[in-house]
Design goal:
The protein is an alpha/beta fold and about 300 residues long. The protein is built from 10 helices and 14 strands. The structure holds 1,4-dihydronicotinamide adenine dinucleotide and oxaloacetate ion. Belongs to the LDH/MDH superfamily.
């Protein structure tokens, strides 16, 4: 199993590290445009192999795509992150060109690859990948909802004063400060609905804190987060690589599901060896349906900024 990670920055390196530590891939290629940068990250990570007991070979590449040839899975994290006060959507001017070029070069070397888009604005750049490269829709996946759901579970655990591992919850919709739709009515603590323990006001705060999860960390760190994003990407990669058929909310191209068409947005999917093997249609309540519709309208507005 060969995995390529484009972008050896904060998220790319974190994701490569989690993939290596989980020890399910034979090779991870990290590629960056900065001279020697990916090679340096690869060497540093390889020097953790004896300590962390993994056998994954990590290789760095300065913009040489031949090293990525025949990758099973490729992750695109190349591009700029936001700074405090910015929205993800403001990154489109620089990141659209980068993602288009990178996706094209990856597919030239690996025509059967499954592509995971991480660079922001993620839903729009996942849509861009759909419109510009020749891969079936099940092989183009946007990562956002898995991270947003992990943050939702973190905030729920905080409110419930329990470990995050006791909590289940999902966030669908666009990966944006306003567009996320945390599904509080479906969230549980070990099968008991969290609505049994938390009142509407507390749940509203949990949802609002979840939606601004990325912005909160960007303000604290001066750039956006990387540990939870890297861990979320590695979970998607593992579900595909090991054909685990786990369910994650991912940005995927919709053709009528949830009443939505011609956009990529976060909805629950089953991830296995064929990428997105199924889009799961939940029975949402009216409030959640309306929020998803509004979120889709905002994603479509950002999509209009693309030069397709
Ligand atoms: N979808 C999600 O949930 C998340 C998305 N992100 C996004 O991921 C992206 C990366 O974030 P960070 O890793 O923090 O940024 P970073 O600045 O640490 O790393 C980005 C790397 O991309 C490289 N790069 C730029 N252009 C390239 C090209 N044409 N080819 C190859 N490499 C290129 C840069 O040299 C740099 O090393 C940002 O757009 C950020 O907004 C970050 C966190 C979560
Ligand atoms: O907040 C950002 O810009 C990066 C990101 O998507 C996240 O951490 O959710």
């Amino acid at each position: 199993m060969k995995v390529t990670v484009v972008g050896a920055g904060a998220v790319g390196a974190s994701c490569a590290e989690y993939i290596a530590i989980k020890n399910f891939a034979s090779e991870v290629v990290i590629l960056d445009i900065k001279e020697d940068y990916a090679e340096g990250k690869a060497m540093d990570l390889m020097q953790t192999a004896s300590l962390n007991k993994f056998d994954t070979k990590i290789v760095g590449s300065t913009n040489d795509y031949s090293k990525t040839a025949n990758s099973d899975i490729a992750v695109i994290t190349s591009g700029i992150p936001r700074k405090p006060g910015m929205s993800r959507e403001e990154l489109i001017g620089i990141n659209a060109g980068i993602v288009k070029e990178v996706a094209t070069k990856i597919v030239e070397q690996s025509p059967d690859v499954t592509l995971i888009v991480v660079s922001n604005p993620m839903d729009t750049l996942t849509y861009l990948a759909h419109k510009t490269i020749n891969l079936p829709k099940n092989r183009i996946i946007g990562m956002g909802g898995a991270l947003d759901s992990a943050r939702f579970q973190y905030r729920l655990a905080e409110a419930l004063d329990c470990p995050s591992s006791d909590v289940q919850g999902m966030v669908i919709g666009g990966h944006s400060d306003k567009g996320m739709v945390p599904l509080a009515s479906l969230a549980t603590r070990n099968s008991v609905r969290v609505t049994e323990y938390l009142d509407d006001a507390r749940l509203e705060k949990v949802s609002e804190d979840t939606k601004v999860g990325g912005a909160t960390l960007t303000k604290m760190l001066g750039t956006s987060a990387w540990y939870a994003p890297g861990a979320a990407v590695s979970a998607l990669v593992q579900s595909i690589a090991c054909d685990q058929k786990k369910m994650f909310p991912c940005s995927t191209y919709l053709e009528g599901e949830y009443g939505l068409n011609d956009l990529c947005i976060g909805v629950p999917v089953i991830l296995g060896k064929d990428g997105i093997e199924k889009i799961v249609e939940l029975d949402l309540n009216d409030a959640e349906k309306n929020k998803l519709k509004e979120s889709a309208e905002a994603v479509k507005k950002t999509n209009e900024l693309l030069e397709l």
